[in-house]
Amino acid sequence: MSKYKTPCLLFDNECPLCKRFKMSLERIELRDINLSFYEIQDEGIYQAFPFLNAERVNKEIHLVLSNDPPKVIHGAEVLTFLIDKNPKIKKFSWLIDSDMGQKAVNTFYSSVNSLRSHLRSHCSKCKNKRAKPQIDTGL
Hints:
Blueprint: E1 8-11, H1 16-27, E2 36-39, H2 44-48, H3 54-59, E3 62-67, E4 70-74, H4 76-84, H5 87-90, H6 93-97, H7 99-121, H8 124-127
Parallel strand pairs: 1-2
Antiparallel strand pairs: 1-3, 3-4
Helix pairs in contact: 4-7
């Protein structure tokens, strides 16, 4: 049995924004989901979930929903999924169900991910860090 459980959120432990997002998620109530958290720097996740592309995982948030069969969501879709799992926010889910609401979620995610990339490019610890090359399966 693997020590890595699904569903799990993969986060960048070297990014202050990612660490803060993870800490916030640990404090909120999520309906019908027991979420685990794993650092993208942990090489074991790429062995446990060989369908992941390390380079892509380094570029955007990933949520592994299941291992067999592989089911992964990433980017703004993760935010939409997590919003749907929070009973307090669920009351306002109609706002994100609209095209305009989805555009707002996508814009928010894109802006935060852009800021994360900017921070990483100016971080002496992160700048020279390279992801292990893997075959891109699209997940």
